[in-house]
Amino acid sequence: MSDPLSDDSRTPGTLWGVGLGPGDSELVTVKAARVIGAADVVAYHCARHGRSIARSVAQPYLRDGQIEERLMYPVTTETTDHPGGYTGALEDFYAESAAVLAEHLRAGRDVALLAEGDPLFFSSYMHMHKRLVGEFRAEIIPGVTSVSASSAAIAVPLVEGEETLTVVPGTLPQARMRELFSRADAFAVMKLGRTFTRVRDALDEAGRLDEAWYVERASTDVQQVAPARDVDPAAVPYFSMIVVPGRTNNPRGEADPAPRGEVVVVGLGPGSSEWTTPEVSRELDAATDLIGYTTYLARVTPRPGQRVHASDNRVEAERAEFALDLASRGARVAVVSSGDPGVFAMATAVAEVASEPRWADVPVRVVPGMTAANAVAAAVGAPLGHDFAVVSLSDRLKPWEVIADRIRHALSADLVIAIYNPGSASRAWQVPALKDILSETVDADRVMVLGRDVGGPTQSLTVTTVGEFDPSVVDMRTLLIIGSSATRVTKRAAGDLVFTPRSHPGHVRGD
User: Fold this and answer.
1) What is the 3-state secondary structure (H, E, C) of 194-230?
2) What's the confidence (pLDDT) of residue 314?
3) Phi, psi (rounded to 5 degrees) for 309
4) Which of 92, 231, 359, 435 has the fewest C-beta atoms lying within 10 Å of its C-beta?
5) Under a CB-based contact definition with an 8 Å cutoff, are residues 261 and 329 in contact?
6) What φ, ψ does residue 2 adopt, rounded to 5°?
7) Are the CB atoms for 438 and 430 separated by under 8 Å?
8) What number of other Cβ atoms are within 10 A of residue 313's Cβ?
9) φ, ψ of residue 113 in degrees (nearest 5)
10) DSSP per residue over 263-301, as a string?
11) Residue 272, number of CB atoms within 10 A of its CB
């Protein structure tokens, strides 16, 4: 008589990933109940104590004569002497468990692998699925997630309208959680237990703790619900969750405060969306109105309901006044600049207009962004590694004589100089005039860097010298860096580097 576990002539069985829901056996779907009862093998994970919540949920649907496979974790949160550490121990366990299930499947047995919640949502089932799906047919039966059960437990709408939902594992670093909590509309935090104190602290730092609900063993007879602030960390089990509903719905049932307007001036960075800081993204998301130069606003994707007010680049004072007026009537206004808003951008214009007495009650904040000078410098190395000056070549707000005098003094002081706004269609003469000043003042081999659209789709970088500098290639989207006498270019096989040593001539060690 052949061993059925080694009979390769049989049609392989089906692996069923069965979602059981969050804990209440009555929340198991009709299909899941049918598949559990029909399966030849019922498998489930458990800790070393041997008890399985998944099996207890599925108990009403089991039948006599089924084979049960208990996949017991060798380690959960404790330490291990496995040579590969915790990760190595789990990898071996998953491989061994998959091999056990594969034997049944090869023998033609259908296997129902039980998963609390949903099989593809932070579930142990996924580790078996990835190892077996290449050889065997696998079908997923979705289950009610713990997020849905916890939302039902607090009986507060979780997301509404255009709000988004974020699911966060409590095992993340605290700083990362704080960032996510600050940005999210609504969110749920899983995997608590030992992580609860760190999660609570991150909520507090993000200003979201008073909105947070704690739900323990959602949907079961021992379910508990409480404000997260009031929970004893020592009593929190792993099967618990924190839920923060979207800001549209106040979780404490209190009336929303009257909206208070404000103006926030933000910098998008010089080009790439990756250089827009998370803080700036949060402010853009929270704004009711976006104001700025048309080209800069084109880099922002407004959310539904946001009002966008684009204007020409030469009406900074009018733009600032418009923003303050909207804020005085309750709007949350984000004034958008490229780069950093405080460097030749809108922060100064807003601050200047806001200093008028009629705007004294309107809050104004400035949120920094990466500057074009820093972006260009980083693209070639570290030319701003020592003292440097920043000068705008535009004479729209100051006479050329003042600009030229400042450049000469910066060169005389042997500073690295970053040149903003070097040229435009109406100012084609100024860059050649700059070259004349440089040629009269410094040696022809003085290092220069030309960065155009750095971080953008048409980025170009040129490392040259004053003698070889060609003014005709410079336009308004170019930033120039003029090195000091100490700035050097190092030729390397892995790529050239431009840098200005910290030990610049005249530097006194110990300063």
Assistant:
1) HHHHHHHHHHHHCCCHHHCEEEECCCCCCCEEEEHHH
2) 72
3) -125, 100
4) 92
5) yes
6) -75, 150
7) no
8) 12
9) -95, 115
10) EEEEE-BSS-GGGS-HHHHHHHHH-SEEEEEHHHHTT--
11) 16
* C-beta atoms surrounding 256 within 10 Å: 9
Residue 114 CB burial class (10 angstroms; 0-12, 13-18, ≥19): buried
Nearest to 449 by CA among 471, 464, 469, 438: 464
Position of tokens 């004479």?
395
Cα distances from 125 to residues 32, 111, 121, 142, in angstroms, run: 15, 12, 9, 12
Say which residues have a Cβ less than 8 Å from residue 473's Cβ, sequence separation at least 6: 450, 462
Cα–Cα separations (whole angstroms), residue 243 to 76, 130, 236: 25, 30, 15
Query: Residue 497 is inside which H or E element, if any?
Result: strand 497-499
Q: What is the pTM of this model?
A: 0.60
* Pairing assessment for the beta strands 488-490 and 388-392 based on DSSP bridges: unpaired
Tell me how far apart the alpha carbons of residues 286 and 272 are, in angstroms, rounded to a whole number: 21
Closest to 347 measured CA to CA, from 333, 336, 331: 336
For residue range 365-414, list pLDDT tens digits in order. Answer: 999 999 999 999 999 999 999 999 999 998 888 899 999 999 999 999 99
Q: How many residues does the chain have?
A: 511
The CA distance from 106 to 4, in Å, is 9
In this predicted structure, what is the pLDDT of residue 254?
Answer: 46
Percentage of the chain with pLDDT > 70? Answer: 93
